[in-house]
Amino acid sequence: MQHELEPETAATRRRYDRASTYYDWQVWPMELLGMKRFRRVVLARVTGPRVLEVGVGTGINLPDYPAGLDVDAIDLSPGMLARARRRGGIQARVHLHEMDVQTLAFSDGSFNTVVATCVFCSVPDPVIGLREIRRVLAPGGRAVLLEHVRPGGRRLGAMFDRLDPLVSRAGPHINRRTVENVRAAGFTIEVEQNLWSDILKLIVAR
Ligand SMILES: C[S@@+](CC[C@H](N)C(=O)[O-])C[C@H]1O[C@@H](n2cnc3c(N)ncnc32)[C@H](O)[C@@H]1O
Fold this sequence. Notes:
Layout (H helix, E strand, L loop, with lengths): L6 H13 L3 H21 L6 E5 L15 E6 L2 H8 L7 E6 L12 E7 L8 H11 E12 L5 H17 L7 H7 L4 E8 L3 E6 L1
Parallel strand pairs: 1-2, 1-4, 2-3, 4-5
Antiparallel strand pairs: 5-7, 6-7
Helix pairs in contact: 4-6
The structure holds S-adenosylmethionine (SAM).
């Protein structure tokens, strides 16, 4: 990456570089418990030919893109990208880039679909990142997101708010209002589907 990162973005990159060595092991139980199925719900919404996946991580989604798609996939963390490069079973044409979603190096209107799974809990300024996604979407294109968010219930929401400063020291934020952030970035929400309670959501926006 060419430019100097903001301190919070640089800290996020360091955190995921460290996590890259054990990330797949850490998420494996969740994948077995249903995440894998939810990821497929997301990927079923993808239309091409040009797709951007932001925060691709170790590339867990990559084998599920069908052949024939051109997928640019970006991540802030070189460590996560190194794992993604070794991911097997990929059919689509995938191009990996080290890049910050808050400053995408793609031209306006480049992509038919932008995908993000469990990313906007970690991006330091999610609205700026989501605005960048909107900018690079072609007219009629869609953002398809799978994100965990702050629960809506008064007590549970307040509990997530109290725990967030502690949890986010070592991991992602647990109280992001991603649906509201998607709207704040200028999108219109087409689908907001609760996949697990009201905490894990599929969000489709244009
Ligand atoms: C929780 S992991 C999710 C990885 C993958 N999407 C998945 O579903 O397994 C969050 C990913 O977002 C990346 N990330 C965080 N902030 C980012 C940013 N500003 N730009 C690009 N990637 C970012 C992290 O490096 C990390 O790989």
